[in-house]
Amino acid sequence: MKIPKSVTLSAILLFLFFGCKKSSNNPVPVNSNAKLSLVSGSNQSAAIGYWLKDSIVVKVTNNGLPVSNVDIQFIGSGCNEDLITDVKTKADGTAKYFWILAANQGTQTLDAVAIIQNERIDSIAINATAVSSAGQPLRSACTPNPGGQAQRILRLSTGRLIACFPGKTSMRYSDDNGKSWNPIKSFGPNYTVAWITTSPQDEIFAATTGDGIFYSKDAGNTWTNITPSTFNKQDKIDDIAFTIDGKLIFTGSANDIYVSPDKGTTWTSSGNGLNTTPAYQNPVELQNGDLYILSFANILYKSSDNGKNWTAQNNAQNERVTGIYVDKNGWFYKASDILFDEVILISKDNGATFNGFVDFHSEAYIINISMQSDGYLYFGRLGGAIGMVYNGTQDTNSYCLTDEPFPAYVIAKNNSLVYSNSGGIFY
Fold first, then answer.
1. What stretches of 29-86 show up as alpha helix (H) in DSSP?
2. Helix, strand, or coil here: 325?
3. Are residues 170 and 120 part of one domain?
4. Contact indicator for 214, 205 with CB cutoff of 8 Å
5. Could you tell me if 355 and 386 lie in one domain?
6. I need a surface site. Which of 82, 219, 331, 388 has the fewest CB within 10 A?
C-alpha cells in the first residue's frame, strides 16, 4: 500500500521532535568535566570531640558552571571513618558539612568525594587540627548522629564501655574511658539498637527496633538472634535486663513481657493482670525470685510465678513509683513520689518492708537508678540532673545536667563519670 507523502513527512517530524529533543533533566555525564573544589573551612582547629567553628563548604562545577544534586560523601579519619555523611549539592553547586573532630590530637583529614550516577568523579582532602580541651567539658569523639546522645551506657568487666545510640550504626564501644567510640563491626551497621544489657560474664544482649533480640556470648565478637518466635518484631521494645539470678527479661506493651531462664533458648510470656494500655520498663528480679516491672503510668507490678501473673503494688493517685533497681546484694530500691515528695526507699527483705534511704523534699521524679563500681548509688532526675547518694547522704551538685530528661551514665574504669545528654557524651 502506498503511504501518502504528507503522512510520511508528519511521522518524520514527530520522531525528530519527541525522539531527539534533549531533556533538561539529564544528569551530568560521568565522563564530564565536573570538578570538586574547596570553598572554605580548611585548616581550622578545635578540641577533640567538638565541632569546628566554621562549616566545611565544597562546590561541584562542570566547565565552570555549578552542578546541583550531586552526592557528596564526607569521610572522616580515625574513629570517625565509618560515620560517613552524604550531602546533596544545592542550586549553586555547594554542599556544607559540620565537622566534629575525632579523638587523635594533631592533624586530622576529611575526604570529600563527589559521586555522580554511582561513580566517583572527584575528591579532595581537607585538614584540621585537634587540640586538647581548654576549659571545655571533655566531649567524646566519634558518636553517631549530630547530637551524639546515648540511650544506655554499660561497662564490661574488662573496662570496655558499650553504648547504644538512636538510628543505624547504633552500637559502639570505648576502650579509653569514653574519649572515643568505635563501631562494633561484628554486629553490622544495619540494625537500630534501642536498649542493651550485659551479664557478669560480659555477654551482651541487644534489643533492636524491628529486628528483635540479639545475643553475644563473647563480649560482642559474634551474634545470634534469639527473638522468641511468638514476638512480633515490629512491636516496640521498651527495656531489657539481665537479672541477678540469670533471667533475661524484655518488656514492651502488656502482651510483650518475655522472660527467659536460659539466655534466650526458651521464653515464656504472659500479660495476666497487666493493664493493656501502657508500656513497661525496669524489669528486675529479687533474691526470692519475685519479678517486678514498672509501667509508664507509674504503677509497680509484681509476679511471684516467673511472669505468668502480675499484681499492682500501688495506687498512682497516692504513690507514683518512678524508678526501681536491685543491687548485687539483692537490696531493692524504689523511687516514689508520695504526695508531691520524692523519696528513694530501700528493702533488704525482698520487698516485704521498705525504709527511707533519701528524701528530696520536693517532686524530683527519680529515674534510672543503679549502683556503680565506686560504691555510690546513682540516679537520674526528670529535670536533667544526675545525682549520687551513699548511706543516705545526698550529693546532686557534682553532676548537674540541664538538658537531658533521661540521662545515660556509667562509672568508667578510671573512676570518671561518663554521661550522655543531648549535647553528646562527656567524660
1. none
2. strand
3. no
4. yes
5. yes
6. 82
How do 119-131 and 44-47 pair as beta strands? parallel
Answer yes or no: do 415 and 358 share one domain: yes
Q: How many CB atoms lie within 10 A of CB 47?
A: 19
Among 131, 166, 181, identify where a domain stops. Answer: 131
Strand partners, 46: 130
Domain count of the chain? 2
| CA–CA gap between residue 222 and residue 217 (Å, rounded) | 7
Hey, what's the cell of 350?
Answer: 525482698
- CB-based contact 189:82 (threshold 8 Å): yes
- Specify whether 287 is located in the same domain as 380: yes
Hunting for cell 499484681 — which residue is that? 311
189 shares a domain with 110: no
Rounded Cα–Cα distance for residues 139 and 243 (Å): 32
* pTM attached to this predicted model: 0.89
CATH of the domain at 58: 2.60.40.10
Question: Which cell goes with 404?
Answer: 537531658
Structural domain that includes position 313: 152-426
Contact 204, 263 (CB under 8 A): no
- Which residues, other chains included, contact 6 with Cβ-Cβ below 8 Å and sequence gap of 6+? none
Consecutive sets of 10 residues in the chain, 427 residues long: mean pLDDT of each? 39 36 45 88 96 97 94 96 95 97 96 94 97 90 83 96 86 97 92 95 96 97 96 94 96 88 96 86 97 94 96 90 95 90 93 91 84 89 76 60 69 94 88
Cell of 200: 557478669
Same structural domain for residues 116 and 157?
Answer: no
Q: Pick from 132, 381, 209: which is nearest to 409 by CA? A: 381
Q: What is the DSSP string of 98-160?
A: -PBP-SSSEEEEEEEEEEETTEEEEEEEEEEEEE--SSS--B-BS-SSSS---SEEEE-TTS-
Q: Hey, what's the cell of 86?
A: 552524604
Phi, psi dihedral angles at 261 (to 5 degrees): -85, -5
String of b and e for 145-159 (b: at least 16 CB within 10 Å)? eebbbbbbbbbbeee
Please indicate, yes or no, if residue 109 is contained in any of the structural domains: yes
Beta strands per DSSP E along 339-416:
341-347, 355-359, 366-371, 377-381, 385-390, 393-400, 408-411
C-alpha 351/C-alpha 302 separation (Å) is 10
Output the domain CATH number for residue 230. 2.130.10.10
Q: How far is CA 170 from CA 35, 43, 104, 358, 424, in A?
A: 34, 30, 22, 36, 14
